[in-house]
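Re-run with default settings, no changes from the original entry. Doing this only to confirm the output is reproducible before filing.
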Amino acid sequence: MEIYSEDVLRWLHILSMVYCLGGEWGVFQTSYKITDHRLPLDERRRHMETAYRIDILARTGIILLLPLGVHMGANLGAHPWDGGYLVLNWILAALWLALCWGAFIKRETDIGITLTIWDERIRFVLIPALLGISVYSLFNDGPLTFKWYATKVFLYGLMLIIGLALRFIMRHWTTIFREIAIQGATPALEGQLQREINLARVLAYIYWIGISTTCFVGATKLF
């Protein structure tokens, strides 16, 4: 049986989706131990470390969805950016992924926090671009040829917004635990941590629904 490059791209696309869904579920469950003030601080930090190690797979998956989707879209004729644009697409994606992993590796340091902030800044540029192109293509004669493809891009942009909010929260975990280590577990710090993780759990549910819907649109191509 002959395997085509499109089959490999589709396989990688599916894997990226799986890591997005599964990784966020792991972080979701681990967060219950992170916020349990009855546990010793060292144990809570170990659970936080586990959450970061799980989450890096989800972060990798959500980043890879973009270059894979762009490449597959070019093969399908869903947009005009092929050839050299695809090379640039993968170079930029590799740089973004390297930044994301650099932030993960240095996560307990000031450098790691700085790299995370730059990772977030990329999304500040990317999200408006994706939403703008997709909405224009849905309601006008835009560069995205197929409505289902434009819908996928739009949903992906929305998921990046939720992912950005989750990045804010996880980055703040490091700061809060630093303060707890210095001054102890005060009611104010514990309350702030609990509120933020409660919000993250709600966002996680929306994230799963959004990713699942994106998968459905891409698989069925209803419109």
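The longest helix spans residues 147-183. The chain has one domain: 5-220.
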